[in-house]
Amino acid sequence: MRHDKSKAADAEIGVALAGGGGPVRLSGSLTIRTVTPARAALAALPEGGTVTLDISALARIDTAGAWLLVTLTRRLAAAGRELQITGASAEAASLMQTVEAAYPVPEAPAPHRQTLADLLERLGRQVMTGVGFVLALVSYLGIFLHRLARALRHPREFRFTSLVHHCEEVGFRAVPIVALMAFLIGVVLAFQGSAQLRQFGAEVFVVDLIAISILRELGILLTSIIVAGRTASAFTAAIGSMKMREEIDAMRTLGLDPAMVLFVPRILALLLMLPILGLIADIAGLFGGALMAWIDLGISPEMFRTRLVEGTDVSHVVVGLIKAPFFALIIGVVGCHAGMQVESNAESLGRMTSNAVVTAIFAVIVADAVFSIFFARLGI
Q1: How far is CA 290 from CA 134, 171, 221, 283, in A?
Q2: CA-to-CA distance for 67 and 70, rounded, in angstroms?
Q3: Band of pLDDT at residue 352, cut at 50, 70 and 90
């Protein structure tokens, strides 16, 4: 037999663990002061299917002690064993019954068969959620346009230093990755195009393929996707962090308009820099295509330039660059909106940053598809 006695202030609990299948005896006070050492001592109960716990020697027991006994009973029952409590006084028995009755019982979800009405309801809710999200983006676009008009009427409210800073972050720092991406896309287009056109003896038309693909679609589209990935996430993270630290509330307290301070410089920087990045991507893509055409097909740079000038209309460049301001508005509005939706926790910041990138890229691709259909209808 082992006898453990734990003391806590003016209360003590004694736990006597008996070997050979004998009863386990508790003595002293089983209260909130002693429930922790008692629980630790009862962790080493004797082996066997049934355990007998004698509490006749307890001088006092409270609700915490009754909870310990009920919890121990349930734990052993879950392990396929049984706990028999003997020697309980009327008070102890009443407390254990009260705790047992109040013990939380997980409610099993009621089986529910999905019906057509349930599916339609879920679809309707998702549609309304999407409509609400689009309306929120439109409202943020309206806020930007309103603040921009106010800045034109009152130039002293406009933050030119912030605009220059964001132009550097959005445009200048993105030039290397945009140029490298466009160069590699031009190389891939020239290589794959030459492999297909060589079968028909039309290798020279690879210049038209590269020029139209890069200038009309891929140059500005892939540039916008890269900018959406790096800039929308940056906008969301910056504005979301400020909201978490309550800096935006501090701005309002100081009489500053968060839309004028945060939204206008960022979105306007995108409007200014994305067309420039698109033009850089076009030049890099044409250079990569010309280099691969020279290496793989023997088309000299002079021949490539001549074919490019004679066979490519300037409308392809215009069509590509016209899309840039619209893509910039989409990316900027999505990033600023997501930043303002961040709550006061890091998990929300990460979730909204990820959502901003996905939403911006998806919206840019959808907008590009709409522009393609529109220009095709116009015959441009």
Answers
A1: 42, 25, 20, 10
A2: 5
A3: very high
Alpha helices in 198-314 (DSSP H): 206-212, 219-227, 233-244, 247-253, 258, 264-297, 301-311
Strand partners, 16: 3, 25
Place of tokens 């929300």: 348
Provide the 3-class DSSP secondary structure of residue 341: coil
Cβ atoms < 10 Å from Cβ of 115: 9
**Residue 218: which residues within 8 A CB-CB, separation 6 or more?**
182, 185, 189, 285
* Rg of the chain over all Cα atoms, to the nearest angstrom: 36
| Tally of CB atoms within 10 A around 232 | 31
Q: Average per-residue pLDDT in the chain?
A: 85
Nearest to 55 by CA among 101, 20, 14: 14
Could you state, in order of their start, the residue ranges of all structural domains in the chain?
2-102, 129-378
Read off the tokens for 207.
């210049």
- Reported CATH class of domain 2-102: alpha beta
Give the pLDDT band (50/70/90) at residue 13: low
- Relative orientation angle of helices 346-378 and 219-227, to the nearest 10 degrees: 170
Of 195 and 150, more confident? 150
- The DSSP symbol for 254 reads T
Residue with tokens 């000038």: 309
Classify residue 231 by its DSSP letter. Answer: I
Q: In what order do the strands lie in the sheet with 2-8?
A: 2-8, 11-17, 24-30, 50-61, 82-86
pLDDT band at 202 (very low <50, low <70, confident <90, very high): confident
User: What does the chain come to in residues?
Assistant: 380
Q: For residue 225, give the amino acid letter.
A: I
Structure tokens belonging to residue 198: 């060589």
Q: Tell me the pTM.
A: 0.68
CA distances in angstroms from 132 to 136, 143, 214, 216, 355, listed in the order given? 6, 16, 36, 33, 16
Q: How far apart are CA 18 and CA 23, in angstroms?
A: 6
Instruction: Answer yes or no: are the C-beta atoms of 159 and 265 closer than 8 Å.
Output: yes
Give CA–CA dist 303/322, Å, rounded: 29
CA dihedral 85, 88, 94, 99 (to 10 degrees): -40
